[in-house]
Amino acid sequence: MRFKLVLPTEVLLDTVVGKIIAEAENGWFCLEPRHIDFVSALVPGLLVYVTADGAERFVGIDEGILVKCGPEVRVSTREAVLGDDPDALKSVILERTCALDQHERSSRGMLARLEAGVAKHFLDLQKGR
Known about the structure:
Elements: E1 2-6, E2 11-24, E3 27-31, E4 38-42, E5 45-51, E6 56-61, E7 64-69, E8 72-77, E9 80-83, H1 86-127
Parallel strand pairs: 1-8
Antiparallel strand pairs: 1-2, 2-3, 2-5, 4-7, 5-6, 6-9, 7-8
């Protein structure tokens, strides 16, 4: 089956695989070529795939969506890292997720201040100042 790993800016991986093992909120699952069509929300962590020649490969991923439709499996995620060491991949993806969370909190704070400033200006306009 064909496996595509899609990030917002690129297709990170497009390859033929024999098996995919991933983790959802309710636990690990395995997809093989004759598996029924399937959709799942993935949690941040590790995704394992076995290539057509039997080699096991690892991808550290942020949360994402996996869709299996016929012979194709697509995983869409914000962040992914390819590698051979599962423990290193997990720590890299968790570090990136934490950094992104801090960036999102900072962005939301700036947006809230901007919205408050706009609301204050509208109130000033209504009062005729």
